[in-house]
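Predict the 3D structure for this chain.
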Amino acid sequence: MHSDRDRFRSSSPDPDRLLRIYLRDHYAGSAAGDALVRRTARAHGSGPAGRRLRALADEITKDRESLVGIMTSFGVPVPRARALVTRCAEKIGRAKPNGRLVARSPLSDVLELEALRLAAEGRLALWRSLGEIARGDDRIDAGTIRHLAARAERQIEQLEDLRLVSVGVALAPGARPEPRRTTVDGRRRSHRPFTKVRWVS
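Done. Predicted structure below.
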């Protein structure tokens, strides 16, 4: 009787080739994410949100450098052309409707922070995938992958905090977000992806 893992393997024409494509695609996405987080940080100026986003941008740059190191260990070249295409797509995304024609809309903050959170969830998925690969491939350092995954989880939480504030400003003025529950040891409970948000009037 074959396991699910065996069935997946039998349907993969070339795992190494698929891994190269996978890494290149994630690198291309990281180029767009880096551009977006820095643009969003500039839009928030020198306020608390801007400072947090700039710190996050520095982390994302380090994440990208870590990914380049992993790609190098597998002999995967950095896909400059594909990254450029993704950057162009991200720039075109600036023209998306946001309720205003000229001035920046508060809705832009919501949409950009949601995009950044999705990008962070994509990084977490990447690190977890590489953690699985590291179980049978010593070209990947499992300890480094665990560190990167933990950082991605923190990034998701930080972005969710900022996103909820932007939702309150743009879509629910005067409302306040429901306080987050804490664990028994007093630590904040991590956000789960795509949970519903309730606002307390």
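The two ends are 56 Å apart (CA to CA).
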